[in-house]
Amino acid sequence: MTGRRFAPLGVRPFGRLLTTYTVNEIGDSVGIVALAVLVYDRTEAVAPTAAIFVAAKFLPALLAPLLTARVDQLPLRRVLPILYLLEAVVFATLGLIADTEFVLALVLALGLIDGTLAITGRGLTRGAVAVVLQPAGLLRDGNALMNIGFAVASVGGAAVAGLLIGTMGIATALYADAASFLIIAILLATTNNLPSPERERDPFRERLRAGLRYARRNQTVRLLLVGQAVALILLTLIVPIEVIYAKESLGTSSAGYGVLLASWGAGIFVGSLLYLRVKNRSPWALVVASTFAVAVAYLGLAVAGSLVAACLISVIGGIGNGIQWIAVMTALQEQTARDYQARITGLMESLGAAMPGAGFLIGGAIVALSSPRAAYAVAGGGLLVLLLGALPLRARLRRNGSPGDFDVADASLPDTFGTRPTVEAGAGRDGG
């Protein structure tokens, strides 16, 4: 069983895709923290600091699908290194700005460019992983390893940023980030066996429309995208008010707030490891169980009376959080035809960047009108309502479903990478 879990590492070039994806996630975390500190230190104002998150996270979610549709027909060995090389140039420029004269508009523009490149790179990498591993029946195993890399990056990225900024300064942190992206670019440029298109390139607009049409007409894909978009709003609704919850509702200190966050982070890491053991169960069961765990945790935090209780509940929520995203992403990849992998996974990555913005606004509004506990209650209750609404649609998420539903409806669409393999066999999966 252990050998099976690490079997994807024997399929080239998955090992390098895993490495570059993880380093990209760490770099993204370091970059956004460094930019936030840079903007706040130079402006000493909240509005510009919030603007950098909008520029680097929200707006790129609208632009990345356009860029993905533009470049996903190019050989990945060429396009991925170029994307990461451009990210390296962006962060090197930001390092120069941190060392010299600060111009807010330029920083925001560079943040927008980097965010768009980052989401596009992640979408293309996810699509490549599906193309490489799905024919070997190792997509779930590979996604489990990528989820661990994501968890390590999520927990460790901010810590690395704080260490670099605290000991070496903001400019050095930005230069180090640039160096990490340069290393990724070199590693991918020297990687063989990355998927390459096998047909003539299609016009950009047709390519973009075809991807959106696929997402709209494939019932399972549409269900997963829309359901996760709503879930992401509810999952992130409490993020901006956690510090208020810790200090006002629980009556703890800044250190207690840190412990509360660490408890959730520890749960995410445990959930990522747990996914290694449960990845072959029904996709439906994994999505429902993990989302339910987060919902219960939010409702528990709404009534928790002490920091200790809140931390224990947070571990449970973190475990669900560590499984939920990758369970949805895996189900989506298994239901998506090969030619659409980069566009559909890129669309999901864009939702992951855009929807939290709505969640942040709603969470802040609820606290302003009521209390942090009410925000947790709304988030938990909303997730339960979402699950109840999805129960009648269970049959659409078939265990052994084919990604070809859309192909019957629109067979004229091209298959850029050639033949479309069936999804990984469902032997040994739990019926959920």
Describe this structure in words.
The chain has 16 helices and no strands. Helix 2 (14-43) runs antiparallel to helix 7 (170-189). Residues 399-432 have low confidence and may be disordered. By secondary structure, the chain is mostly helical. The protein has helices spanning 2-5, 14-43, 46-71, 76-99, 104-133, 139-168, 170-189, 204-217, 219-236, 242-249, 254-278, 283-303, 307-334, 341-369, 372-390, 405-409. The radius of gyration is 21 Å and the shape is globular. It has 2 domains: 1-201, Growth Hormone, Chain: A; 204-411, MFS general substrate transporter like domains (Growth Hormone, Chain: A), CATH 1.20.1250.
Keywords for this structure?
Growth Hormone, Chain: A, 432 residues, 16 helices, 2 domains, mainly alpha
Proper CATH architecture of the largest domain: Up-down Bundle
Q: Overall 3D geometry?
A: globular
Instruction: Tell me what portion of residues adopts beta-strand conformation.
Output: under 5%
Q: Roughly how many Å is the radius of gyration? A: 21 Å
CATH class assignment of the largest domain = Mainly Alpha
- Count all strands and give the number: 0
Total individual domains = 2
